[in-house]
Specification:
Order of helices and strands: EHEHEHHHHEEHHEEEEE
Radius of gyration: 17 Å
Distance between the termini: 41 Å
Number of strands: 10
Number of domains: 1
Largest sheet: 5 strands, mixed
CATH topology: Purple Acid Phosphatase, chain A, domain 2
CATH superfamily: Metallo-dependent phosphatases
Structural class: alpha/beta
């Protein structure tokens, strides 16, 4: 493995602000690492606004990479292309509610809009490819990056979870698909353990993975 920075990757948060706060406290001793958040900060959970407040503050004090999840994509699609139906059907109303003032009007601060718009589709390193959902298992990572037609897969893909192998030349770290335990497969690490789904059996944890050690740190959901 090449000599490069160590990482902490954090899975899908989905508006679970209390859980995020608790997990970040557990991770304080790893302040020298690059923190990669794999997207889906918003929707479904009770306090998306506070999640983004925390992430903005955290990024001011740590080296962070904020990836775009399909839920950030749907939010931006709603705000800039007026496609509200798709967003609301996927938990967007919970995010709107978190931005409402005492008069029942929703307002998204400018720094939050900048946060959403500045999220990245992927983060490529010599040993790891960080992405929200995944990528085509029949293509190399390099070929997927080079093909503009593949980038939409980065926020939606799941086919790699239904195949026996892949052509990836490095380990792909992703969220998007909630599982009761982190996914540890050939060239892949999945860290969405369904933090927002605490009422579903086996789910309800927010997961981080330390790399290259591949040590998992979990925080049980504190949000209802």
């Amino acid at each position: 493995m090449s000599k490069e920075k160590k990482y902490v990757a954090i899975g899908d948060i989905h508006g679970c602000a209390k859980t995020l706060e608790a997990l970040l406290k557990h991770l304080e001793i790893y302040n020298d690492r690059v923190f990669v958040f794999v997207g889906d900060y918003i929707d479904r959970g009770p306090d998306s606004k506070s999640v983004v407040d925390q992430l903005i503050q955290f990024s001011e004090e740590h080296q962070c990479v904020m990836l775009q999840g399909n839920h950030e994509y749907m939010m931006l699609d709603a705000l800039f292309r007026n496609n509200y139906a798709g967003w609301e059907l996927n938990g967007g109303q919970a995010t709107i509610n978190s931005y409402m003032d005492k008069n029942g009007e929703a307002f998204i601060p400018e720094e939050h809009m900048e946060f959403y718009q500045n999220t990245k589709l992927f983060y490529d390193t010599p040993d790891y490819f960080f992405v929200h959902a995944g990528l085509d298992p029949k293509m190399t990572v390099a070929d997927s990056i080079a093909d503009p037609d593949q980038t939409e897969r980065f926020i939606w893909e799941r086919s790699h979870l239904r195949t026996l192998g892949n052509k990836w030349e490095k380990t792909v770290v992703f969220g998007h698909t909630p599982r009761s335990e982190p996914i540890k497969g050939p060239n892949m690490i999945g860290i969405d353990t369904g933090c927002v789904y605490s009422k579903r059996r086996g789910l309800g944890n927010l997961t981080a993975v330390l790399l290259p050690e591949m040590t998992f740190i979990q925080q049980e959901s504190l949000d209802t």
